[in-house]
Amino acid sequence: MKRITAVLMAVLMITGLTACGEADPDKARESIQVIAMDTPMVFTAYGEKSTHAVYMAEDEARRLDALLSRTDENSVIYQLNHADGLGITVGEEVCGLIEAAEAYSQATGGAFDISIAPVVSAWGFTTDRYRVPDEAELAELLTHVGSEHITTAEDAAALDPGTQIDLGGIAKGYASDRVVAIFRENNVPRGKAELGGNILVMGDKPDGTPWRVGVQDPAKPDEEAYAAILTLEDAFIVTSGSYQRYFEENGKRYHHIIDPATGHPADSGLTSVTVVADSAEGNGTMCDALSTALFVMGEERALDFWRSGTYDFELVLVTEDGRVVVTDGLKDILTEVEESGYTYEIVS
Amino acid sequence: MRSSPELRPNFWDALVALAVVLLAAGCGFAVWGGQNGAAALTAVVSVDGVETERLVLADTGETERTVESNGYTLCLRLTETEVWVEEADCPTQDCVHTGHISRSGQSIVCLPARVIITLEGGQPVDNGVDIVVG
Ligand SMILES: [Zn+2]
Q1: Cα(A346)–Cα(A72) distance, rounded to whole angstroms?
Q2: Residue A291 · residue A274 · CB < 8 Å
Q3: DSSP B81
Q4: What is the mean pLDDT of residues A103-124?
Q5: Is pLDDT above 50 for A18?
Q6: What confidence tens digit (pLDDT) does each residue in A230-259 have?
Q7: CB nearest to B129's CB, from A13, A14, A214
Q8: Average pLDDT in the B88-104 region?
Q9: How far lies A176's CA from each of A105, A180, A218, A249, in Å?
Q10: Residue A116: exposed, middle, or buried by beta-carbon count in 10 A (0-12, 13-18, 19+)?
Q11: What is the pLDDT, as a whole number, of residue A144?
Q12: Which of A239, A298, A310, B121 is most solvent-facing, going by the fewest CB within 10 Å?
């Protein structure tokens, strides 16, 4: 009888050992770093299917890169840009993205505009061959900018001759929407994704606390310095800042966020705009588009737009005059960074 | 009185007892060993999404690596504690400007060459945040 008890105990121990040896499915973690869409990306997922999930995310980023690239001759966008005014079949997905971009353009009074592409190129931001275009050149290019030059129907699109589009302003946001969908399909309980300046946090951390997201201090772009820290679960966070890409000529600095109204780098008094929204699919694209648009619009118009309630999001604005302006939906989850030297304002 | 042979431990009892002890030890090791066994600081080089080299800094010592990719050449320097790109012929030079990395989780990225150098293992960076936006 005792022997049987001992055998039973041994069996129990074996069961116990198996449980010990296998990682807790909730804590199994896979993280990969890749370059896609001209930007470094990091995908981190937890759960039993974490490995499958992160590699699916990578594949999806590469698929969208090939589909939406403006420079790859095989991409649908390249073909549309070089169709000499003719309509071509771009597929429902691309058509949907163009229409989403059009909607953000309308909502923001043209502050977000995918047809600004040739102007951005004229400044050299697509090729790294920076230059300051003259006014006549910009004026000519601007005649081809605007929603009225873009037509879509079901799975086809057409651009007026001279108009070109670049979905770069929403492509990474859209990719982050796809990542959240892939993570959900794979029952990922928690994870995070960085697609350049587009961040997704899913669930909480393994220790049960929310993710701590540092908003880069625009004044110290090369340092581990933050203008604010946000504690978030299940959220998209996207920052657009003039410090992210710029060049200097004759002592003047020119950054990469071009105001479609002027053809010049937006001079709105802001150094960065961070848009935060819950992780509902579609919000990644929204945060991406709005971070650019609201940077162009500047503090006052950005806050008016937020107050209008057209879309559901929150904001962290960093101003040239040393203020961090925070919308009140973030007031309980934002930590001020004393050593940053910024003064903090909560707005409602 | 009848003696009870059942009370005398025999060979099988000893074997079962040994198995129980070994399993207990194994279980304990699986729980504690996994947590204490953090790998040494390792530089992982990936080219175009494919891992090409894994260098344990403490074992490698001071050394150089030339990484060629996408038409560019990066000259990588490693010591027992840090890694940096000494020289590169890429147009942006971001990889060179990143400077030295020395803590787990830090990385150097060269977009034109499609090269990523990441530090794994060792003590993770604790700067109070899990992720940086911007
Ligand atoms: Zn480089």
Answers
A1: 44
A2: yes
A3: S
A4: 97
A5: no
A6: 999 999 999 999 999 999 999 999 999 999
A7: A214
A8: 91
A9: 20, 6, 23, 35
A10: buried
A11: 97
A12: A310
Minimal CA separation from B19 to chain A, in Å: 7
Locate B35 and state its tokens.
């947590």
CA distance B92 to A255: 16
pLDDT confidence bin for A188, thresholds 50/70/90: very high
**Which one has a higher pLDDT value, A197 or A4?**
A197
| Residue B37: pLDDT band with limits 50, 70, 90 | very low
pTM given for the model = 0.83
Q: Which residues of A touch B131 (CB under 8 A)?
A: 192, 194, 199, 201, 211-214
pLDDT tens-digit profile of A201-215? 999 999 999 999 999
Ligand 1 centre distance from Cα of residue A95 (Å):
35
Provide the pairing of β-strand A88-89 with A252-255: unpaired
Inter-chain residue contact B20 with A238, CB threshold 8 Å: no
Give start and end residues of each alpha helix (H) in chain B.
Answer: 11-36, 57-60, 94-97
User: For residues A347 and A343, what is the distance between their CA atoms, to the nearest angstrom?
Assistant: 13
Answer for the pair A325, A319: CB distance below 8 angstroms, yes or no.
yes
CB contact under 8 A, B48 and A244: no
Cβ contact, residue pair B16, A10, below 8 Å: yes
All structural domains of chain B: 42-120 (2.60.320.10)
Q: What pLDDT does residue B121 have?
A: 84
Domain ranges of chain A: 4-65+170-347, 71-166
pLDDT of A95 higher than 80: yes
Sign of the four-CA dihedral A254, A259, A260, A264: negative
Tokens representing residue A259 in the block: 């105001």
Q: Give A71-166's CATH code, choosing from 3.40.630.10, 1.10.3720.10, 1.10.760.10, 1.10.3980.10.
A: 1.10.3980.10
B27 chain-A contacts, CB cut-off 8 A: 13, 16-17, 20
Nearest CA to CA, how far is B114 from chain A (Å)? 6
pLDDT tens digits along A143-161: 999 999 999 999 999 999 9
